């Protein structure tokens, strides 16, 4: 049945609710070099390449409203976005770039038994892990 | 420079922290038909196809610890995962399937000016929007 393929769950886009759309757009666009696919006053979408879901920005209140839920919430979101790169140097480079763009280093890159990785957060506190399999 | 391509941000995996790994694994695997790529006692990863990031499950405490942050947090997470399908029928089908698998219907599918869509949440409250461009 053709329908079965279609119902296989995919994340076509990750939507994050942000406080300041212009700030978030600048962070991901100019700051981290993401390619804008859609750019509206209330909604921005970046294409992140073939092996990745797109990233969509929406105001936090609007994001909650779209789902019909309260926008109240705080603390750890339980979610992180993982970017796998080819070397330690690139891990350092991406995290430094995120910091220059207005993000924060949450976990300084270090070597662990699973490879070399660190975390940064975007201006709204969304967590990104940047990791390389090399130690 | 080869490095520039490499630093273009991608979401290779979305990691969500869950309360009960077995329950979440069953929901996404058996329930929604996601294909297991890695299956360890403390970590499960599903491949969701070429146009999508992978989905990784980790215990919530472990997910917070990996980033070096507190696991405290509640309410709206600000994040939703969007699954775009080809018709209204498929929207209904996916949301019904999620409910049968132990998820909850958060927003019943309806026609809007942007198409037909609804939201379900997984057993840990992560929000999924299922949408079709057809009205």
Features:
homodimer; 135 residues; alpha/beta; 2,3-Dihydroxybiphenyl 1,2-Dioxygenase, domain 1; 2 domains; 4-stranded mixed beta sheet; 4 helices
Descriptive account of the structure:
The structure is a homodimer of 135-residue chains. By secondary structure, the first copy, chain A, is an alpha/beta fold. Chain A has two domains: 11-69, 2,3-Dihydroxybiphenyl 1,2-Dioxygenase, domain 1 (Roll), CATH 3.10.180; 78-135, 2,3-Dihydroxybiphenyl 1,2-Dioxygenase, domain 1, CATH 3.10.180. In chain A, 28% of the residues lie in helices and 41% in strands. Chain A contains four helices and nine strands, in the order H-E-H-E-E-E-H-E-E-H-E-E-E. In chain A, a hairpin with a 2-residue loop joins strand 2 (35-40) and strand 3. The first copy, chain A, is globular and about 40 Å long. The first copy, chain A, starts with a helix and ends with a strand. At the A-B interface, helix 1, strand 1, helix 3, strand 5 and strand 6 of A face helix 1, strand 1, helix 3, strand 5 and strand 6 of B. Strand 6 (79-85) of chain A pairs antiparallel with strand 1 of chain B, so a sheet runs across the interface.
What is this structure, in a nutshell?
Two copies of one chain form a homodimer. Chain A is α/β, with parallel strands linked by helices.
CATH fold title of the largest domain in chain A = 2,3-Dihydroxybiphenyl 1,2-Dioxygenase, domain 1
Broad CATH class of the largest domain in chain A: Alpha Beta
Helix content percent band of chain A: 25-40%
Radius of gyration of chain A: 16 Å
Class derived from helix and strand content of chain A: alpha/beta
Approximate strand percentage of chain A: 35-45%
**What distance separates the N and C termini of chain A?**
46 Å
Quick check: average pLDDT of chain A?
93
Oligomer: homodimer
Strand line-up of the largest beta sheet of chain A: 1-4-3-2
